[in-house]
Amino acid sequence: MSSREDILEKIRRKKFPDQPLPNLSEFGIVYANRVEQFVAALKSVGGSSLRVNTLAEADQAIRDLDVHRHATKTCSLIPDIGEANVDLDAVDDPHELEDVDVAIFPGEFGVAENGAIWIDAKNVKHRVVYVIAQHIVVVLDRCALVDNMHRAYDRLSFATPGFGMFLSGPSKTADIEQSLVIGAHGPRSLTVVLVENGFSD
Amino acid sequence: MTDHAVLAQKFVANSPRAHWHDRALWFVRAKRDLAAKSLPEWEELREHASDIKAHCVAHLADYLEEFTRNAEKLGVQVHWAKDAAEHNQIVLGILQKHRVTKIVKSKSMLTEECHLNPFLERHGMEVIDTDLGERIVQMRHEPPSHIVLPAIHIQKEEVGALFHEQLGTDEGATDPQYLVEAARKHLREKFMAAEAGITGVNFAIAETGGFVVCTNEGNCDLGVSLPPVHIACMGIEKLIPRAQDLGVFLRLLARSATGQPITTYSSHFHGPRPGCELHVVLVDNGRTEILGSDDFRRSLNCIRCGACMNTCPVYRRSGGHSYQSTVPGPIGSILAPARDAAKHESLPFACSLCGSCTDVCPVKIDLHHQLLTWRGEIARRGLLPKSKSMGMKFVSFVFQHRWLYEWSGKLARFSLRVLPRWMIYNRFNAWGRQRELPAAPRSSFRDWYRHRSKNDGGKQES
Amino acid sequence: MKVGLFVPCYVDQMYPEVAWAAWRVLTHCGIDVDFPAAQTCCGQPMANTGCVDQTAPLAKQFVKIFRPYDYVVSPSGSCIAMVRHHYAEFFENSADYRYVSERSYELCEFLHDVLDLKELPGQFPHRVGIHQSCHGLRELRLGSSSELVKPAFSKVEKLLSLIDGIEFTALQRPDECCGFGGTFAVAEEAVSVMMGDDRIADHEQAGTEVLTGADMSCLMHLDGLLRRRKSPMRVLHVAQILAGDDGKALFS
Predict the structure, then answer these.
(1) B437 vs chain A: nearest CA distance in angstroms?
(2) Residue at C88 is within a domain
(3) Residue-wise pLDDT tens digits, A42-55
(4) How confident is the model over C75-101, as pLDDT tens digits?
(5) Does residue B270 sit in the same domain as residue B404?
(6) Cβ B442–C17 below 8 Å, yes or no?
(7) Among B2, B22, B23, B353, which would you mutate to test the C interface (most chain C Cβ atoms within 10 Å of its Cβ)?
């Protein structure tokens, strides 16, 4: 008998009490002001935020960021945003991204309850860019905010192969005496640029 | 196996350090309380989580098959392992096929349970634990003392000395920021050199064939996004039915674990990177056994948040290593005897039955009741120390015979009043080592009640 | 209404004044209280050690003795928790067991839930610290535990508030275990004592003069530590405060 059959057989040997799955469609906290809550949550997890009106303003705000001005290697996954000099698609080996200073990429939507942003890497050649860069900047449509994680999953589908993640703040650790240190292995800072009029204009 | 109480006594003997440990973990518990209270629906959320787990267990075989089918559709190679040995062999086989000698691993309690690291090292491979806490304990050649905070028992001076010796940091440097920076540099080199990444799995989704790994440091993503091989190892109980169920668990996990609203990275893997390989190893290693037990099945609900450890007054004051088990604390004291009751017989007794673990558990495992049930199981299997089993037989006999009980009570009270102190407080009296016994009264309540009834027929108030 | 008073074995022998105080409070409320002399122990020490076979006869003895009463009341949360939550395995579908288990109350719970006590005479002008015994708190839910996200309440505090003059002290850890835990107190002596000392330190920083609670076993442990350290903090069972008399003079 293969291990697979063995394990399945052992499980099926006994009947267990069943329980219906919960209906989560209406469940979860709702905030009076989602943007405010998102910004506060983001701050609490070590991220910072900027609010701008248009994509052009976002571009300017990002160029003005200290981390961007001091960057030698910058990679942007959004056309015409930031001053990029690393073309991800031209890189064959992801190890070459080791010394990227700043990575700029879009967020699909944000979650007010925890400041997390859904990042979809479906069309991104090297997903290591999200964690290997020293600093990251996420551009997010202000209207693309949901209240809680249940509403977040309402928006997600995993029908095709791919990778995505909820990103909540910069990389961090508290493994030495519970002292919070920002910048464990991954990015040392996360700036979220909330764009008022989104990507549609 | 050393009794938990013996190791605990050693831990407590260093009182400042034991208090430091207690406070560090209580701080985490306090953060968890704030995080839980930020959600008015917290108790319902726990209820939902418990229901989802119960549902999943009731259909586990079907869901495992559904997961496998969907994962394979995504290009994932799924393996099944009956036990730790088979799990280790499978992982070794994959690594050898790719001629891998350098591996980075993010936190996985399962691979700890299977003792994967020493196994791979025996085959000439270098395995680097990349979670900072895990790396620290690995450099010290000791096991983690907590499942979420592996180095919670170590003070920053000790980390400083360790890093000075092994990573060349300045002597006497203890600033966490500085030490983390040194570790970052050290581990980045390891990430860049790794030929394969191994991770655990927090949740695997039957409906999609994907899985989720949660970290704060980003070590999982760095570890598996550079090399061409990713091996994810999971116990079969990590399965959940639907992607939307993740909403429930991700809301509970980090809040319960550290008081964060969510982990920094909650990475959803659905298939390998183009041109790379993704393997999932499904491991039983005693889980189907626990599944078959009506008493202990719910312990498989565990999502490894560590909240029961942080809240446990015994764990906080005895340290993770006193449990001598991969998973320490309340949940560990249920899981370990399930694996080897004779070896871990003292763990279900390393508990005052306060029940805080049960109330804090995000998936509503009735931890303290299971610990009590384990005590019965240990007695049933004849594993209780003779002093306990004979003692209780005697006491029970006394309580079944009222005259004997009354006579014993009288004798005890009399002895306490008349015997010299040295005869009462000596090395055989563990109670009296640091505590006074009650001041014995002349009469018992029943004596008083008997006489009172004689005097006034028991009707009037005195 | 006829109430059978269950007095835990160690209270009967070592703290008769606590049993007396419980009896006095119940009598004051006009309850017909009886103390059936056949009672000894609920079996908890054996159950908590895993000695199921040694527990069973005591559980059966308990149900038999207390079946004739309308209610069973005891000044001990942990014994009542034993009867209510841990007796089931010894009785197969026994109506007597169900009757007794459903009608067994911890003293404060009985005063609060069944009698809905609204006033008590007397005053107690002291700074009082409540020790929330775990079994009372998390098995009987005499109060809200700090882990749960539910409205805060405490039946013990509510009853004590009926007495004039009490000032309650505020703890840093409102419901941490004192480390008694039955045989745990001896088997894990080192941890048990550290837990107790930590509770006491919390009460000291809060300014507690009188330490009280609904379970004498926890209080016995804490009192043992306090007396060894020659602390001025006094320990009284909640029944003694409610009775307006610690009853010690009757038994010493």
Answers:
(1) 39
(2) yes
(3) 999 999 999 999 99
(4) 999 999 999 999 999 998 899 999 999
(5) no
(6) no
(7) B353
Q: Across residues B185-196, what is the average pLDDT?
A: 98
Residue B107 belongs to a domain: yes
- List all residues of chain B from 220 to 279 with a beta carbon under 8 Å from chain C: none
- B20 touches C: beta carbon within 8 Å: no
Range of the domain at B427: 396-456
Residue C51 lies in a domain: yes
What distance in Å separates residue B205's CA from the closest CA in chain C? 29
Q: Is the dihedral of CA B6, B7, B8, B13 positive or negative?
A: positive
Q: So what's the pLDDT on residue A73?
A: 97
CA closest to A42 among chain B residues: B261
**Residues 365 through 394 of chain B touching chain C, CB cutoff 8 Å:** 372, 374-380, 384, 388-389, 392-393
Question: Which residue in C has a C-alpha nearest to residue B433's C-alpha?
Answer: C189
- Record: fold of A25-195: Rossmann fold (3.40.50)
pLDDT score of B345 more than 70: yes
Give me the domain span that covers residue C50.
Answer: 2-114
Residue in chain C closest to B15 (alpha carbons) equals C194
Euclidean distance between CA atoms C61 and B393, whole angstroms? 16
Copy the structure tokens of residue B76: 């994932």
Q: Which of B262, B285, B308 is the last residue of a domain?
A: B285
Which amino acid is residue B198, in one-letter code? I
pLDDT above 60 (res B38) = yes
Does B296 contact chain A (CB < 8 Å)? no
Contact C50 B348 (CB under 8 A): yes
**Contact between chains at B376 and C50 (C-beta distance less than 8 A):** yes
pLDDT number for residue C133: 96
- pLDDT bucket at B300, cuts 50 / 70 / 90: very high
Q: Considering only alpha carbons, which residue of chain C is nearest residue B462?
A: C24
Residue A79 contacts B, CB cutoff 8 Å:
no
Average pLDDT over every residue of B215-236? 97
The total of structural domains in chain C comes to 2
C129 pLDDT exceeds 60? yes
Chain B, nearest residue to C227 by Cα? B436
**Touching B: which chains, 3+ CB pairs < 8 A?**
A, C
Show me where the domains of chain A are located. 25-195
| Minimum distance, in Å, between the CA of residue B83 and any CA atom of chain C | 30
- Kindly tell me if the per-residue pLDDT of B454 is higher than 90: no
Chains sharing 3 or more CB pairs under 8 A with chain A: B
- A-chain CB neighbours of B155 within 8 Å are 177
Flag if C180 and B444 touch (Cβ within 8 Å): no
Q: Characterize C31-65 residue by residue with b for buried, 16 or more Cβ atoms within 10 angstroms of its Cβ, and e for exposed.
A: bebbbeeebbbbbbbbbbbbbbebbbbbbbbbbeb
For chain B, give the percent of residues with pLDDT over 90.
Answer: 95
C/A Cβ contact: 3+ pairs below 8 Å: no
- What would the mean pLDDT of B138-147 be, rounded to a whole number? 97
pLDDT attached to residue A201 = 42
The number of distinct structural domains making up chain B is 2
The answer to whether residue B245 is domain-embedded is yes
Answer yes or no: is pLDDT of A30 > 60: yes
Has residue B224 been placed in a domain?
A: yes
Q: Could you tell me the CATH number of the domain that includes residue C188?
A: 3.40.50
ipTM of the complex: 0.97
